[in-house]
User: Fold these one by one.
Assistant:
Number 1:
Amino acid sequence: MIENVVEFFKNLPPKKCTECGETVSEQHECYGTKCDKCLDFK
């Protein structure tokens, strides 16, 4: 059963920023919805 969960997360599409639409460079299963640029991280 664990293999199915791993496959599920491997097959998730890249997460997109809700502000600009850029691909977020984090794990897809995280809760963040904005890229570093839109979060104003430097």
Note: The mean pLDDT is 81.
Number 2:
Amino acid sequence: MKKLQLIFLFCIAGLSVNAQEIDTVTYIPNRINNFSILPLPAIAYNPANGWMFGVAASTSWFMGDPISTHQSNLVFNFLYTTKKQWIISSKSNVFLADDQWNLIGDWRYFITSQPTYGLGSSTPNDFGVEQIGQESVIVGEQQMDFTLIRFHETILRRVGFSKFYLGVGYHLDIHQKIESYLIDDDLIDYNAEFSHDYYNKSIGVPVDQYTLSGISINGIMENRDVAVSPYEHNYAMISYKINPEFLGSDKSSSTLLLDYRHYFNLSENRKRHIIAAWAMGNFLVSGDLPYMNLPSIGWDMFGRSGRGYSQGRFRGENMLYSEVEYRFPLLPNKDLFGGTIFVNAASFSSKMTGEKLMNTINPGYGVGLRVMINKEKRTTITADYGFGQKGNSGFYLNINESF
């Protein structure tokens, strides 16, 4: 852990000196204003991907008068990892003039891999075989290689002069070239099915590739001051998604996502003293979802849930998640460095194993360091170390706050 922290501090020193930021600050009606782009030689880390190297850009601007228009943001990544993965993504939150429209995009192309452990909250870390019905199914760590193509775009219209938005979205996920295997071939019992393969066969979905294509109806309350690093107020979202076969899905289904975040400012003089709270529920309402499309830890839009566990460590038809974080400045009169202490908890259900929500709760906790490299835009580099149950832990290096 000390070695990782030293590497992080060395990287931050280099980024702070070498990053070239382009800034335009004059407001011009009906034009992009106060545009800034911070291109960085990207160095990041999380347990699922390992160390990641490449190019990252954090971009922010205003599509109208900053007094009446929220700041728009886009984060782009082009990364290669020490686990021989390619990670290409663009994630955007755009507000048009006077906040009349809100556009939310999540585009990804991954050639990647990650372990999976089976469904539910009580899956073991280590390899094992369980009897489910008449079949022997592998539980515990199983490796998966796959390619992901994702195109999610949501368009919302502001309701009157309120903080509320209503809109529709289109969501496409294509998983291809899926292969499940064990790192240690000596452990494999070829009469046992991998969790991914057994589940998909049970619902009539191919095991090597599948598509989820659907439309969503969305409602959002956007009351945060700056979305990438809020100091106050709150945010709420409800999204009901329908994935019919006639739009290309392998199986019809519908899901409901609920997301609420609140920021309690503890000091008028030092806005960085904050308690941030996050609650999320993701539920399968009808039909069946392919294995990799099921609600899972670390698969929210920015991949920030479940610090203390690797992405995909827990998965199931339904998910409940909560997190509380205390954020604070580390210097008496400057905002360059900050710290955080966080705790989180998650629970998953599984029809395959009969596990219900809240039967098992998976807690996590940890600490973090913040370096604010643009005070005006609140662009922040974050480093967190999280701990979970049963020896799970992870180091996380990212741009902007976790939520």
Note: Residues 1-25 have pLDDT under 50 and may be disordered.
Number 3:
Amino acid sequence: MNEKHISNEQYSDFLKKVRISVISTDYNKEFLQVAAHKEFEDLSVVAHLMAPQEDGSVKSLLVTAVGLDAMGINQEQFMKDAIEASEKNFPGKAAPLPSYLFGQDSPEDSFSAKIFVASMQDMNNGAAVMLYPDFMQKAAQEIGGNLYVLPSSRHEVLLMKEDPLFTLKDLKEVVHEVNRTEVAMEDRLSDNVYHYDAAERKLEIGEHYQERKAQEKESRHSVLGDLSSNKAAAKSPAEKAARKKDEPAL
């Protein structure tokens, strides 16, 4: 267990300058050997210290595992704190796709008006908003339920309401095609589509959500079967005798 070499006040000040981003785990294995990080599905969350400079600019400094160790800060706890701090320091925002592309809204019945672009205020490394718990819950409430999250790039994600008209397979094909034809390799995030379960406040790869729900359904059926069997076995001797008495003789 790490023993902090900085005060709680210094740690709090440190967190006020922290900003997270998400990157592909597979594409950044060497980088992640240095960076403090937290793995999430096929992605990794990393943190940067946004340090103000004398000339008014802001310098982004990677938070490393070695640096945290030198300060006596536990990496796992820091990454949890960093996500919470980043949501406060660099809030997420969402806008309908037409508004994002053209600066204006399209008719309500337009399909594109039902897709939202989510990022941070400066649209830089903003895909990390998908890990902002309060932002995602608010987005789900405003859009109207469970969400599909399409990783457009490391800078933004697309949010759309879960709809039986659009299968997970179809959405994955779209993401894969866009990644191969329109997104630079360094900006590519994932070929997967993610799912946000509003009731559970849980974000996960779409297939993992489907598997989880299938297991829950199977478990409920099993429990109901056990209850039915137990009910039949638990009938009292009097009930059994009365039922036998009412049965016609052969």
Note: Strands lie at 18-24, 37-40, 43-52, 58-62, 92-96, 115-120, 147-153, 156-161, 194-197, 202-205.
